[in-house]
Design a protein that fits this description.
The chain is mostly helical and 67 residues long. The chain has helices at residues 12-25, 29-43, 45-56, 61-64. α1 (12-25) packs across α2 (29-43).
Length: 67
């Protein structure tokens, strides 16, 4: 799986939490954020029913254009 950069602004207290959690768990910040997104996806009904098939399909326009 390829990786891409995600630039977002989040509240400072959330950023501090992620930094502390990453340090305490011995994980890199990017690993922790990926785990958080994975957990969110699993409980996101829209993702599971609508978006997951589009993302996983190798024939989508986005994948065909390398986006």
């Amino acid at each position: 799986m390829s990786r891409s950069t995600l630039n977002v602004r989040i509240p400072e207290d959330k950023h501090k939490y992620l930094r502390l959690k990453a340090t305490h768990s011995g994980k890199q910040l990017q690993e922790l954020v990926t785990e958080c997104i994975d957990q969110y996806q699993q409980s996101d009904e829209d993702y599971m029913s609508k978006f997951k098939p589009l993302i996983e399909s190798p024939n989508t326009k986005e994948n065909a254009h390398g986006a």
